[in-house]
Amino acid sequence: KAGVTQTPRYLIKTRGQQVTLSCSPISGHRSVSWYQQTPGQGLQFLFEYFSETQRNKGNFPGRFSGRQFSNSRSEMNVSTLELGDSALYLCASSLARAGSSGANVLTFGAGSRLTVL
Amino acid sequence: KQEVTQIPAALSVPEGENLVLNCSFTDSAIYNLQWFRQDPGKGLTSLLLIQSSQREQTSGRLNASLDKSSGRSTLYIAASQPGDSATYLCAVNQAGTALIFGKGTTLSVSS
């Protein structure tokens, strides 16, 4: 079965611009989580969507936002880009919500590499 | 607040060696713990998931153990190969939160 698909894989933006990243989860998965990965900070949680509702949010400024559609596909948006937003953005999908009991395995996409100049 | 630590940050071994990667966490109230592998510039691949009620999980040359009371997990890799070179991350799953990751151990296996 198809895995988690993230687009675009690579993109370059300049400070002040905005960017939208897309994530298509595994068919049947209703939870999509987004993470930012940088060499210094490691993987940091951005937010989770389940059934089109944001269920959990990490400690990021309001410039970072997201949404989920009825087909479970998710997008995240970063406005007014800063140099420090350069990172690998990863999304992961799962059957159940994050933080639920049981063997809820997260499957990650290959990521979107954002460079801000 | 849960904190996940992985030591060492980097490890170099010759091919064929058996090795252990360590993961510790501060809050033992977890549902499960997952080990992931990440190749450079790529996403994460799930290797093993251990439920809080389990002590071990095995997949091929990989064996993960969990001691919830002491807040520790280990990933044992038998007979390491150059293809095992990657960053290994552990993550804990607990009630109402997203997975919390350690910063990983970067493994290099030389032939």
Tell me about this structure:
Chain A is mainly β and 117 residues long. Chain A is built from no helices and 11 strands. In chain A, a hairpin with a 3-residue loop joins strand 4 and strand 5 (42-50). Chain A starts with a strand and ends with a strand. With 111 residues, chain B is mostly beta strands. Chain B has no helices and 11 strands. In chain B, strands 2, 4, 5, 9, 10 and 11 form a 6-stranded mixed β-sheet that branches. Chain B has a 5-stranded antiparallel β-sheet with strand order 1-3-8-7-6, with no helix packed on it. Chain B starts with a strand and ends with a strand. The interface between A and B is medium-sized, with 28 and 26 residues.
Q: Count the DSSP helices of chain A.
A: 0
Flag low-confidence runs of chain B. Answer: none
Q: State the total count of DSSP E strands of chain B.
A: 11
The percentage of residues in β strands of chain B lies in: over 45%
- Element string of chain B (H = helix, E = strand): EEEEEEEEEEE
Main pleated sheet of chain A: 7 strands, mixed
Shape of chain A: globular
Structural class, judged by helices and strands of chain A? mainly beta
Low-confidence segments of chain A, given as residue ranges, are: none
Share of residues in helices of chain A = under 10%
| DSSP, total strands of chain A | 11
Provide the residue-averaged pLDDT of chain A. Answer: 93
Mean pLDDT metric of chain B: 95
Oligomer: heterodimer
Measured on Cα atoms, how large is the radius of gyration of chain A? 14 Å
